[in-house]
Amino acid sequence: MKIGIVYYSRTGNTRQVAKTLEEKFKEKNAEVDLIEIEHVKRPGFFTAGRASMNQQELSIKNTDFDMQKYDVMIVGTPTWAGRPSPFMKVFINKAENIKGKKVAVFGTGMSPLDKREQFKEIMKNNLENVGIKTVENYLLINFKRGQIVDGEQNIDDFVNTVLKL
Ligand SMILES: Cc1cc2nc3c(=O)[nH]c(=O)nc-3n(C[C@H](O)[C@H](O)[C@H](O)COP(=O)(O)O)c2cc1C
After folding, report:
1. What angle do CA 108, 15, 156 make, to 5 degrees?
2. Which of 114, 155, 159, 161 is deepest in the core (most CB within 10 A)?
3. If we measure between CA atoms, which residue out of 132, 41, 122, 135 comes closest to residue 88?
4. Domain boundaries, the chain
5. Mean pLDDT of 36-47
6. Would you say residue 64 has pLDDT above 90?
7. pLDDT at 55
């Protein structure tokens, strides 16, 4: 199975989870590529929050987002103002050969895991708009000062769900 993990990370937390997932999938003999969505300009706190509230597009450097070779994709993003970072929506709309793929989602944030309903809803809608039905098992991770404080217990279950797709 070939898995593409596409993520955006402004301060490193989401990258950390993406790398943990990469290791776990490799341990299970899956082939994995990590693809980081790169901002043209790192948004400041207020720009990030405002852009997220409006799900407004922010420019990215990546130009090649052909997903053809992946059997499964995993997409991950921080939560900004209760919503996925708009960089993720830019990727979803730019990606080629994504329609009909199996896509699983992970999200990082600093609020309790049961306060992420809006995040899940928007990810689901943004993906449905390009013809993707997401995997129900969303992996949500809660960070405080760069350390995981909740959600780590769900990583193995997420990995196993993806491997069974
Ligand atoms: C502008 C902004 C808004 C944020 N809003 C939320 C929020 O509404 N809920 C939440 O759980 N975390 C929020 N956070 C915290 C980030 O989601 C969290 O620190 C995340 O793990 C950062 O990921 P990164 O290090 O990969 O950029 C916000 C962070 C920023 C910069």
Report:
1. 65
2. 159
3. 122
4. 2-163
5. 97
6. no
7. 84
Mean pLDDT value of segment 95-110: 95
44, 22 Cβ separation under 8 angstroms: no
Question: Which residue has 């720009």 as its token pair?
Answer: 47
Q: Return the ligand 1 atom nearest residue 77 CA.
A: 26
Domain spanning 2-163: CATH 1.20.1090.10: no
| Tokens describing residue 4 | 């593409």
Using alpha carbons only, how large is the chain's radius of gyration in Å? Answer: 14
CA dist., res. 70 & res. 46, Å (int): 35
- Single pTM value for the model: 0.97
Residue type, position 96, single letter: E
Query: Among the atoms of ligand 1, which is closest to the Cα of residue 79?
Result: 17
141: left (phi over 0), alpha (psi -120 to 50) or beta: beta
Euclidean distance between CA atoms 118 and 141, whole angstroms = 15
Average pLDDT of 79-104? 95
Q: How many CB atoms lie within 10 A of CB 59?
A: 10
Residue with tokens 């699983």: 104
